[in-house]
Design brief:
It is a single chain. The chain is an alpha/beta fold. The chain has eight helices and 15 strands. Helix 1 packs parallel to helix 8 and helix 4 crosses helix 5. The chain is elongated and about 65 Å long. The two termini are about 15 Å apart. Bound molecules: flavin-adenine dinucleotide. The site of flavin-adenine dinucleotide has 33 residues, from helix 1, helix 2, strand 4 and helix 7.
Length: about 350
């Protein structure tokens, strides 16, 4: 049941013009157990780590995810291997055992699921958090589940750990909406004996290009810069560069895709325009956090990199009682925070939660 409103002066809830419309109230299901100390939005590695730390601090915690547990990792390429050694992906002090130097996606899914089970985390999967209203100490969180039913929860504190993998950086060119243009690469088999363009030159693009070529696709890379990106992992970079040098993968550097048509891709190169015969396009142009959602919570973003304004010591945002965690803390610089370092955000936040909730504030 909702707590009774306190007598203390109410702080105004910050809102922006982007605040989404609340969902239709008629359908709302206020759950009898809908009160929690801490509500974590996002069951990625960071959200889980935050939940574990808050639970360890003696707080009642609920995690809500619009997909499954570690939903982003579930949608990563099927055959992927992490860049990171397993101990750097560990959360909650649970060892990540694998026979390999670098774990696979499948192993990571097993690991994070086991951790969630071990800590008996309360996770509501397939519920999309649509709005957060109220104020520090008495937030109301409204979600929409798979059956379009609306649920209300009440929380004293909110942790936002919504990641960045849901929203691709679009090229904003004609034809980008064709079904053959994809922003997520899964596996190579369907592209055997087809003409595939891979846009971009970072890790995801290099890995997709190599895997597609090794499984019989004719691959062309279209890259804005003058080479493969310097941050591409040291064991991938020579591989992709040698394939390009040998002419096994074609690459156009300092080039841009101008248009995608059902049969072709039109590109601009230093030598002028070219039209490439084409069946599929993988636009590996990166992803970004859901800035509109953050703004709808009243969180301010920095002008350049859209970093949420927050206290670096506690990760509490400019909205009292709302914390940010994981890759969203870096705004558009998504290559600054990974699982490796984001997994420690839970400890910073839990320490602050303990201080504030134990002292009786909000
Ligand atoms: C191909 C690839 C390989 C990578 N390899 C590595 C690696 O080797 N090592 C490493 O450290 N990092 C790696 N990363 C980066 C790493 O996976 C991310 O930095 C990490 O997942 C971020 O964790 P997070 O918990 O902040 O966000 P996420 O893992 O993205 O979790 C966010 C969660 O929030 C949910 N969500 C979003 N919005 C809502 C909403 N409104 N309501 C409810 N739920 C919501 C999503 O469904 C998702 O489950 C890799 C990334 C990619 C793409």
């Amino acid at each position: 049941m909702p707590r009774k409103a306190s007598n203390k002066a109410r702080k105004p809830v910050l809102k922006t013009s982007k605040t989404p419309e609340p969902v239709a109230r008629k359908q709302a299901h206020a759950r009898p157990d809908g009160w929690t100390d801490v509500l974590v939005i996002g069951a990625g590695p960071t959200g889980l780590a935050c939940a574990i730390e808050a639970q360890r601090a003696g707080l009642k915690v609920l995690v809500i995810d619009k997909g499954c547990v570690v939903n982003s990792l579930f949608h990563y390429p099927a055959n992927m291997t992490f860049f990171t050694t397993p101990e750097l992906l560990e959360i909650g002090g649970i060892p990540f055992n694998t026979a390999n130097m670098k774990p696979t996606r499948q192993e990571a899914l097993e690991y994070y699921r086991n951790v969630a089970q071990h800590y008996e985390l309360k996770i509501h999967q397939y519920e999309w958090v649509k709005t957060v209203t109220g104020e520090d100490g008495e937030f109301r969180v409204t979600t929409l589940d798979r059956k379009e039913a609306v649920h209300d929860y009440y929380a004293r504190k909110i942790i936002v750990a919504t990641g960045y993998y849901d929203l691709p950086n679009y090229m904003n060119i004609p034809g980008e909406d064709l079904r053959k243009v994809m922003h997520y690469y899964n596996e190579p088999h369907p592209y055997y004996d087809t003409d595939v363009v891979v846009v971009g030159a970072k890790n995801s693009a290099a890995i997709a290009a190599l895997e597609l070529w090794r499984h019989g696709a004719r691959v062309t890379m279209v890259v804005r810069e003058d080479g493969i990106h310097r941050h591409v992992k040291y064991w991938i970079k020579p591989d992709i560069e040698n394939r390009i040098k040998n002419g096994e993968i074609q690459a156009f550097f300092r080039s841009r895709v101008l248009e995608v048509t059902p049969e072709a891709v039109r590109i601009n190169t230093p030598q002028g325009e070219r039209v490439l015969k084409n069946d599929f396009v993988f636009a590996m142009t990166g992803y970004h956090p859901d800035y509109d959602f953050l703004c709808s919570l009243g969180i301010e973003l920095s002008p350049e990199q859209c970093r949420p304004v927050c206290d670096p010591e506690t990760l509490e945002s400019n909205v009292a009682g709302i914390y940010v965690a994981g890759v969203i803390v870096a705004g558009s610089s998504t290559n600054e925070i990974f699982i490796e370092n984001g997994r420690f955000h839970g400890q910073l936040i839990a320490a602050d939660l303990s201080r504030k909730l134990a002292s009786g504030a909000a």
